[in-house]
Amino acid sequence: MRPALGAALVGLLALGVSLPAAAQPTVSASVTMSADRTSLAVGDHFQLTVEARCQGATDPQIQLPSLDAFDVVSRRTSTPFSVRFGFGGAGQQVQSTVRHVFILVARQEGTFELPPAVVELAGQRFESAPLTLTVGGGGPAQPGLPPGQVVQQDALPPPTSQIDGLQFDPGGFVRTWVEPAQPYVGQQVSVSVYLYFPQALNGNPMVTREPTADGFWTQDLLPPSRQLRPERQVVNGRAFDVYLLRRFAAFPLSAGPLTIGPTEVTIESRSLFDVLGMNGRPREPWSRASPPVTVEARELPSDGRPRGPVHVGSLALEASLDRAQIATGDAVTLTLTASGTGAIQQLQLAIPAQDGLRILRPEIRDALSHAGGVVGGTRTYRWLIVPERAGDYTLGPVEAAVLDPATGTYAVARTAALSLTAAGSGPEPTAVTPATTEEPDPADDDARARFGPVRTHSELTRSPTVFSEQPWFLGSLLLGPLALLIGLGYRTARARAGRDDPKAAARRARKAAKGRLAAAREHAAAEAPREFYAAVAAALKDVLEAKLEQPVGSLTHAELRKTLVARGMDEATGDRIVDELEGCDFARFSAVGVGGDEMMSCLERARGLLGEIDRFRPTEVEA
Amino acid sequence: MRSAALAITLACLVAPTAARADSLDEMFARANEAYFHGDYEAAAEGYAQLEELGVRDADVAYNLATAEARQGHYGRAIRHYERALWLRPGDDGAAEGLDAARSALGRMRAARMGEAEIDTGPPLAEALFGGVSRDALAIATWLLLLGLCGAILGLLFVRHEGRRLALGIATPLLAIGLGVSALGWSLRAGALDDGEPAVVLVERASLRDAPSEEAAELGRQLEGERAWILEESDGWALVRTRAAEGWLPADEVGRVRPPEE
């Protein structure tokens, strides 16, 4: 039997070994090569992915195309691998994948054809399709990124073809980038401060010194709080994570060299070991400053320059009246909307004065924006205009000179002329507040209107009486604690005096005895003889103890009688006291049938005895 | 003869006070008039002059705050509304004005910067006790202390069981009440403050690590933000903010509480 079993096992084992060999699948592979975009500009980042999926083989080796025409910023390889076991015809199936992901930077212009990526397995050759990449000159990135990989224009670092505003340091540096470097006075200069860091940040970069912008009117272009997101960039052959730290628009206020001051950034690197104090000496924080950057602000071109202030940027003006005909003395509202790009908030417009019209100070509202990093928006003026005489008036046109900084040419933006007719004599317009100045009010009028009115009555108090800060009040706070202390002292003194003075003890005993007799009376009324006699006996004993200044509870009645006589009490009184106590004890334990009258007479006797005990003056106990 | 001398003496004593009162009233009326004519700058100057002359009045502080707000000086408005509330806790108008000034400042900043965060709520201590005057809290503390001491005395001397039970319940309650009112009084009186509360008055104030324009900038404080002045020296104020401690030009930060006489 045993040899037969062994032979069967050997046979099964041989079958198990031979089955997988018999079911060996054929080898196959699929190789792909793709880029997140195929049309890009010099300096742009893009992602190249080469992937080989193999059936029936493990760890395929991909022969990658040459990437010499690009800077390799990063390379990542992953090899997901799976094996599926089966029986019968399916056998064991091995599937493996190798994926190489490159972040590349286009270094030069041209069309680059990447040859196919190749995988060779079991003597067979598998290829991907070739890939053609077109690299153009500088400029914005091409569309076509997948939604999840859209790179925000705001965060894109400036190109490194022209390295300025930085002091290169392989350990990281801070870069200030201004664009343009030679603006006109009043033209927007975009100032961006970037942190270049060679590795992942292990601390929060803190701007410890803000860039100064003396001689500029500035406007922030970034929200006060936001998340830092790095972009990868290669500088001098080294890859850095680039973080945008500051971005603001600066408008030169005068011609000449103007300097954007250095920005200092500090990173406190703190690992878990630092926090736990296990690293010994704490690590020095990383700190770098960008060099100052000078902007050469140019005067506005003199050719064709109109008189008066010039807005640099673009501008469109539009005006309207809420009514074209009004009564004299009534007010009409002229609304003028100026929209465009540039320092719209600095724009100053005025309606030409006219005889017979009173033009009040305008309300001004600004709605600013900086879409795409270009400052602009809308400024709305609202003038109240009061005709003081009847007649036809023409308002405007309101004009503003505009310089296009791209072409250096001037234009004039103007509104249409508006007609206004004032009829009738109307009321005397004396109650209208005159405009005190033509300077625009910087406040938002809607918001301002929420304040007030002011209070017309005031006590004009010179020194508000805060009595809680007066010394007498602070002193009065001690009243309570003082009273408490006095009370405690009194109680302590009283307790001490009570312990030392036998008369006081006797007084307390008499008082206590009276209380007990009062309780006894209540017991009698309640027909509770046991409690009644117990209270009477306790009253007598309390007074005796206080008088004799010795405990009597442990004495027998005979001993008590003897003690009382020995201390000077006459024998008859002593007998009556002892008899009464015996009577109480007897009644306590056989109180059935005791009537109320009997208890009341007992109470009277006890009162009499208490009086006699009180009058009793015991002799001193012999030593 | 004696009565005439007495009358002259009394007149001499009363006259300067009456003249001064008239003068202050006139200044107040002039400032109000300027306000109603839309000359908010002149109105603010008038109210500020009254404060410089020693007037410590919640209504004047309120009017000054309103005149500043009308000019769009929201940081200054916040400061003076807070001062009005310090002088008269629970002043509804000042509280509403303060909220409106903070909101307006937030909208203005959001319009300029895309978004803005403004602390609209007061600190916890002010939220808890801001509506109660220091005097009210002091009186409550005084009464509760007296009550607590009385209750303890009662426990020492009262023998009646029912009364002792009542006193035993009242004593811890009085102790808790005393703790709360004493804490509120301390907070409202600024006894626990590290520095004097103040408000940033300019749009952006550079916080520096030394009292000098050349000193390194530690950060920026925005208009209307709360700071605590620790000391002042040569036109600079050492302030503590929620983020850091550093120096600001003294005229860029204003104390909430009026200076002591």
Compute the average pLDDT of chain A: 78
User: Do you know the CATH architecture of the largest domain in chain A?
Assistant: Sandwich
- Give the helix tally of chain B: 8
Report low-confidence residues of chain A grouped into runs of 5 or more.
1-24, 85-91, 138-155, 425-443
Question: What number of domains of chain B?
Answer: 3
Summarize the amount of helix of chain A as a percent range: 10-25%
- Distance between the amino and carboxyl termini of chain B: 40 Å
CATH topology tier name of the largest domain in chain A: Immunoglobulin-like
Q: What number is the mean pLDDT of chain B? A: 83
Assembly state here?
A: heterodimer
Proportion in helices of chain B? 55-70%
Strand content of chain B: 5-15%
Largest interface, with counts of residues having CB < 8 Å to the other chain, equals:
A-B, 53 and 69 residues
Main sheet specs of chain B? 5 strands, antiparallel
Task: Provide an overview of this structure.
The complex is a heterodimer of chains A (623) and B (261). Chain A has 623 residues and is α+β, with helices and mostly antiparallel strands. Chain A is 24% helix and 33% strand. In chain A, helix 6 packs antiparallel against helix 7 (529-548), helix 8 runs antiparallel to helix 9 and helix 9 packs antiparallel against helix 10 (596-615). The model of chain A is unreliable at 1-24, 85-91, 138-155 and 425-443 (pLDDT under 50). Chain B folds into three domains: 2-121, Alpha Horseshoe (Serine Threonine Protein Phosphatase 5, Tetratricopeptide repeat); 134-188; 196-255, Roll (SH3 type barrels). Chain B is built from eight helices and seven strands. In chain B, strand 4 (226-233) and strand 5 form a beta hairpin. In chain B, helix 7 runs antiparallel to helix 8. The longest helix of chain B is centred in the N-terminal third of the chain and has 35 residues, at 2-36.
